[in-house]
Batch of 2 targets.
Target 1
Amino acid sequence: MHRRTMLVAIAATLPWATGAMLLPRPALAGPTPSPTGAEVYIIWPYDGSVITGGKFWVRMGLRNMGICPKGVDRPNTGHHHLLIDTDLPPMDQPIPSDRNHLHFGAGETEARIELPPGKHTLQLLMGDFNHVPHNPPVYSQKITITVK
């Protein structure tokens, strides 16, 4: 057997070579169930929008789920969190509160925000009464905008 063939044969027996390590793992999520068919989405701005000036409105949409302020534990409800220039946080912990994770715990569905010039990503994530993502998590697609 040629050396290259032998290396390929050996590598094929390793879990990472067969893709076993690439299988998706079940996402950990918080204890609050989300309703079936729940969807959150960004109404405005659209993906690819060019915003002139740094201030603009973000309008948040939600289907098959209700809005409720933080601290109020009602079934099938939650409140919006806007993720700016970051990836989704751990789904089994409270969503951080910082300049990249804006909380709308009063039940807001729109907000005026300001970003510096450049490309930015925006994504919505619903949180329960304790700011923990639901199970399964309810989050929007990540969009990219440019601020000029």
Target 2
Amino acid sequence: MPFLTAAVLAAFVGYAGAWYFELVEGNFALLLFLATIVTGVYWVAERLYYLPKRRRAAEELEANAAERRASLDARGIVADDPQLAETRQRVLAQPWWLDWTAGLFPVILAVFVLRSFLFEPFKIPSGSMIPTLLVGDLILVNKFTYGLRLPVLNTKLTEGTAPKRGDVMVFRYPPKPSLDYIKRVVGVPGDEVAYLNKKLTINGQPVESTRLPDYFDRDAMRYFKQFEEKLGDKSHRLLNDDERPAFIPGVEEFPFKQNCRYSVEGVACKVPEGHYFMMGDNRDNSLDSRYWGFVPDKNIVGKAFLIWMNFGDFKRIGSFE
């Protein structure tokens, strides 16, 4: 078993290393699921076989020591074994290969349940959601609001509440589902969404927008036009870049592309059933549904709701819309 365990641990370390150096495309949910299963098997084996076996060995050790003392006492020899307690502890101690498997199972199981069904942490990697979310923000995503899903398979277990316009949502990137993206829900099933000349309309109604003071992007060292937009009952800020054109360059092929009409002014799309139209708040610096299409319900990960840390700016900690 020590050799088998060493091989299993080496496989996990090798996979994690290859993922880190981008030699393979990693899947953390699958890795965590497999770690839970493997350590769970060891934990059961420890409780049902290895621990009782060590206890029997300790009891046999104590029985032999007691028999030896009785034999010496019968001959009038007073003897004691000062190392008996230490020897007993060594016999009962978990070997390293169980300590690194069965011993980790409760922690891994707790992380698996928490991450799969309650909350999952993410780090914002790009500026597509500026000014709402900045690069380096560490956020929490609610995994149950939109319905509980089986980990890895992402099969829906409960219905939950359907995503609403204005929600900030994490989802699996449709062209490459192994990647997680974060954008704002702009269109829900059945909506006619138009973004023409950098103005958003939904079902023919212009979305309420108010001009705010320009926003200074410290990374770009530039000022951008800033607006407050109201989607449903939620208000959020967004940016526009006057140097970027209104038309959408480099549009990919995607399912239901026939629902969209592209022009030099922008794009208008009819959102199909079971799908959502997503846009970043940094409107001219966001690769979103305008480029790669709609997000199917099966790709939903959860609703982002809290910045729990930003090591460059502690003032950013808190909830957001």
